[in-house]
Amino acid sequence: MSTSSSNSTTDVRMRGFHNRSSVATALKWLDSAIDAQLATRQQQSDATELLPLEQCCGRVLAEELVSGLPVPAFERAMMDGYAVHSADLAAISADHSVALLVAGESLPGRPFAGSVSRGSAVRIMTGAPFPAGADAVLPVELTHPGDTGRVLAIAKVTAGRHVGRVAEDIRPGERLLPAGRRLRPQDVAVASSIGCPQLLVFRRPRVRILLTGSELLPAGSVPQGFRITDSNGPLLQSLVQRDAGVPAALEYLGDDPGKLLQAFSEPADVLLVSGGSSVGQEDFAPQVLAQVGELAIHGLALRPAAPTGLGRCGSKLVFLIPGNPVSCLCAADLFAGRALRRMLGGSGAEPYARQMLELGATVASATGRRDYVRVRREGDRVFPLHTSGAAMLGTVVRADGYFWISEEQEQCSAGARVEYFSYDS
Are strands 175-177 and 65-66 parallel, antiparallel or unpaired? Predict the structure, then answer.
């Protein structure tokens, strides 16, 4: 592709910057694109994998879970006490107890091998098989020790009391979990309870991370001269892992449109391109995406992260993420993270605890633009650290969280109630 400068009427990079899209418009396009990709992925032969239960929590179920057996499969005691005939206790009153012969015991996994006859009782523990002949459990606290081999019942119980019935929890043929459900710990537990050792789940999205910029040194390197150490790569890898994606590759491409073009053809579900997303001389990412796929959104009414781009390349979702670290975090969380979270069955909402707190100082903004404001928290109030400075990574380290200023506001005044998102949740 040509890398020569173009005027603003033909340069694809400039189109979105003349009339920037709102965040709402970008999110609407993204949700539609995610829905389309999910429909495509579910038809692919490698879209699912069979995993043991211990690896299934947080994954998305690919087929409904139907029980093939009852839970519980046998009648069992719901209290520690004695399995009895309720009719034997009919004569009990405040001044009259009934003595019962203790015929044996029933323990979990070790049932009483016989039938409970009238006038007798079987000592039983919670969860133990309920013996034949009896019709209720008399709780141990409603008894007193009797003469050798006997127990004194001091209260009545009705037939069926404290007895767990077959299939009262789960019936054979019952649909327990629908396909598409994001599995919770209790979902994994219920699968185990019906004898299911593994589940078919959707494969986690594979994410390729492409880093542009000839000034970058690999992550963890010591800065040298006018070259800087990459911080966006580890940031994006960590965000992908947090949102249950698979970082399939981390590639340093420099400012080379040819390498970027080649990288776009590699297999992935999601591409994250860090840097090169704006309108500068070496910002090639929007041009490459427009050449090989669809540059649907480029240029947002958002501070920071205005040079964000969204699009598709074949079946892959592509996110052009600004190189400045704060912009990178903002755009990745708001857009790429949303995609991964939705692809794994979540709502897509930002994954932070939130609450309404008082703003401790006025923050300037501008109508028509959404602002991401980093703040520190002091009790029930938050104070802004910076409302500009997208290269200042230290501000998000020193911040406890952030809040949004909407497009309708020229400023957010001290004393206003804001929705605070905590980084530490």
Answer: antiparallel
